[in-house]
Amino acid sequence: MSDTSNERSSGRITMVDLARLAGVSVPTVSRALRNLDSVLPETRTRIHALAAEHGFVANAAAQALRGRAARKTAIVFDFQSSGPGSTSPDAFIFELLGDVAHALTIRDFEVTLCPRENSVERYERQLTEIGASGAIFLGQGGQHEMLQALAARFPIIVWGAVLPEALYCAVGSDNFKGGQLVGEELKGRKRTSILLLGNPQTEQVRLRFEGFRASYGVGQHRMIETLPVGFSYEEAYRAVLNRIKDTPKRLDGIFAATDTLAMAAIRAVREIDLVVPDDVAVVGYNDIPQSQAFDPPLTTIREDDRRAGSLLVEKLMQIRDGVRASSVRLDVTLVRRAT
Amino acid sequence: MSDTSNERSSGRITMVDLARLAGVSVPTVSRALRNLDSVLPETRTRIHALAAEHGFVANAAAQALRGRAARKTAIVFDFQSSGPGSTSPDAFIFELLGDVAHALTIRDFEVTLCPRENSVERYERQLTEIGASGAIFLGQGGQHEMLQALAARFPIIVWGAVLPEALYCAVGSDNFKGGQLVGEELKGRKRTSILLLGNPQTEQVRLRFEGFRASYGVGQHRMIETLPVGFSYEEAYRAVLNRIKDTPKRLDGIFAATDTLAMAAIRAVREIDLVVPDDVAVVGYNDIPQSQAFDPPLTTIREDDRRAGSLLVEKLMQIRDGVRASSVRLDVTLVRRAT
DNA sequence: GTGAAAGCGCTAACAT
DNA sequence: ATGTTAGCGCTTTCAC
C-alpha cells in the first residue's frame, strides 16, 4: 500500500508529514517549531531535528491566513520610468535602495518593489494585495498630498523632503540648509548670475532652491533663473546647452539639484568652450561616489552620514509597533572640490 | 443588533461581506470577480460594482493557499555588500534591476529582493518560503556550481556569463567577444603591456579576459598581467595606484572589467601624471550612462541592446510554463571614444 | 504536555 | 446560473 498523505512529488513537506514522522499531532509540531514552552524539550528537539532533516519550510501563505503579522515591506520608487532614454531614477536612489533592502533583510523582512501609482486608492490596493505591513517611499515624487492621505491608512515612511506640515514620517537630508550652503558658496565666490537646474515640483528640489534663494539673496547684482528638468542626464545636458548657446546672456554659476545634473551641466558648459569653474561655477547635490572621481571633481552637498537606509527602516518599525516616529533631517555639509 | 460578520474595524472586506451585500453565495462572488462566464452578466456587473465601491481586495494568502500559481519573482543580487566603503554592486546592475522590475510589474508579477546565500539549500529554503515561482539572478557571483544544482529544483534565470556547460538558462553579453574586441583594439593601438583589471573569479570577468587573451595574443612583445579587484571604485583606484607607482614597470594599456573600474584606473593613472590615452590606453565594459559623460569619454564595450531586462523576464516565463529556454549571448560592439 | 476541533479567505468539485 | 460542501496548511481555542 502506498504512503498515506506524505511528501508529494512536489517535494514540499507539511506539518502533517512531520507530525506523522514524529508520532505527534500537528499542533504539537507547530508549537515545537515556534519554541513554545508548552512542549516537552525532548519532543521539541526531535521535531526540530526532523524538520531540518526533511527541509521543512512553513507555508507562509497559511501562516498569513491564520493572522500572523506580515513581515513584509514594500519599497516604492520610480523604476517604471527607467526605460531607454527616459527619466531614470538618480543613481543616488539605487544606492539607497540597496541600503534599505539590506537593513530590512537582516531584520528578516521580505522586500517587495512597487511602482509608483497615481492615487491613494491604488496605493492602498496594491499594498494590501501583496500583504505588506508597511511601505518605504524613495522620494515623494511630487505626491505629497497623496502621501498625507495614505499615511492615515497605512504605515509609511518617506525618504525625501521633510515638510513642516507633513502627517507622515519623513527622513531626508536638510535640503533647505543644503541650498543655503550652496547660496553662501556662490555668493562668496562672487557669482552674480545663477542657474538653478532641476524641477522644483519635486519637493526636495524645491526646498534646495528655496534655501539657496534665502542665503544667496537677489538684488541688482544678483540674478537667479530656473531651468526645470527631470533627473535625466541627457535631458539636462540638452536643456543647459540650449540655454547657454541660444541666449549668450552671461551665466557664472549653476546649482544643480543632483550630481548627475551637475555633470550634465558641466559637459554642456564645456561644449561651448567655457571653463569650469572660472567662467561658470557648478555645485551639485548628494555626493554620489562618482562625484569625487569625476573630472573635475564635483563640489557638492553631502549628507551627514550614510545611515539613511537603516534609519528609514528603524522608523518604519516604530510605526509598525504603533509608536509615533518623528521626521529626521540629516545634517549636510558642503564638499568643496574643483567646480 | 450589530452586523453579523461584516467589515471589521480593520477595514478589509472579504468575499463573505460582498456575498451578503450582493445577496449571493461566496463562490458566486469568486466567479464573478474572476470573470468566469458561468455567471449571469448582470450579477457579475453588480458584484464588480460592489467590490469597487467597497474597495475589496482579494486576500492573496488565501488564494495562494488554495493553490493559485504564484505570480512572484525573486531577484537575487548582492545588495548586502553595499555597506559603506565595501564592494557595492556595479551601477550597471542597478540599471538592470530597474528594467527587470519594470518588466515583471507590467506582467503583474510581484518582485521580491533576495540577498545572496551560500548554499543551494538556503536558496531553496528562502525562495520557497516567500513563495516565489521563479528567480532571476543578477550576476553569477561566482556561484556557478550552486546555480547548476539549484536550476534542477527551481525555475531560475541568470544574468551573467553564458557558460557552455550550464544547465541553467543564462542571458548576458557576449563576454568573450567583448574581450576579443578589446584585445584587437589595444593590439591595433600598438600597446605592449596590458593590465587586466578585475577579478576573474567572477564568471563574466573571466570570459572577458579570456577573450582578450585570445585575440591579443602574448609574445615577446606583448605582456599581460592581472590585478584582481572587486567592483568597488575605491579598491580599484588604490590597487592600480599601488601597482603603477610601486613598480614603475611600463604599462601602456588597461582593460577594466567594468566602466566603473576603468574610471578608477584613469584617476590613478593621472595621479602619477601619465596621460590617457597617450601613455596608457584604458577600455572599460558595459557602457553605462556616465561613461559617455566622463572626462575623458570612455572607450568601452556596449551590448547590442538594452532589452536585457525584458529578455530575462521572458525567459523566466518560458521556464515557468515548462518550456525549455535557451541561453542568449547579446552581441557587443566596441565604442571608441577618448581613452 | 498534548490532542481534537474549529476556522482564517478563498476556490474546485459536485450538486441543482 | 447559482448554491453546497470540502479543504488548502497552519494556529488557536479548549479539552483532557
List keywords for this structure.
homodimer; 339 residues; alpha/beta; 434 Repressor (Amino-terminal Domain); Rossmann fold; 4-stranded parallel beta sheet; disordered N terminus; DNA-binding (chains A, B); LacI/GalR-like_sensor (chains A, B); DNA binding (chains A, B); transcription (chains A, B); Lambda_DNA-bd_dom_sf (chains A, B)
Helix-strand topology string of chain A: HHHHEHEHEHEEHEHEHEHEHEHEE
- Sum up the overall morphology of chain A in one term: elongated
> What is the C-alpha radius of gyration of chain A, as a whole number of Å?
26 Å
What is the mean predicted local confidence, pLDDT of chain A? Answer: 90
Instruction: Report how far the terminal alpha carbons of chain A are from each other.
Output: 81 Å
Question: CATH homologous superfamily name of the largest domain in chain A?
Answer: Response regulator
Tally of individual domains of chain A:
3
Largest interface: A-B, 53 and 53 residues
**CATH fold node name of the largest domain in chain A:** Rossmann fold
Q: What can be said about the biggest beta sheet of chain A? A: 6 strands, parallel
Number of strands of chain A: 12
CATH architecture of the largest domain in chain A: 3-Layer(aba) Sandwich
Beta-strand share of residues of chain A: 15-25%
Task: Indicate the multimeric state.
Answer: homodimer
Residues in helix, % of chain A:
40-55%
Question: Strand arrangement, largest sheet of chain A?
Answer: 2-1-3-4-5-11
The total count of helices of chain A amounts to 13
In CATH, what is the class of the largest domain in chain A?
A: Alpha Beta
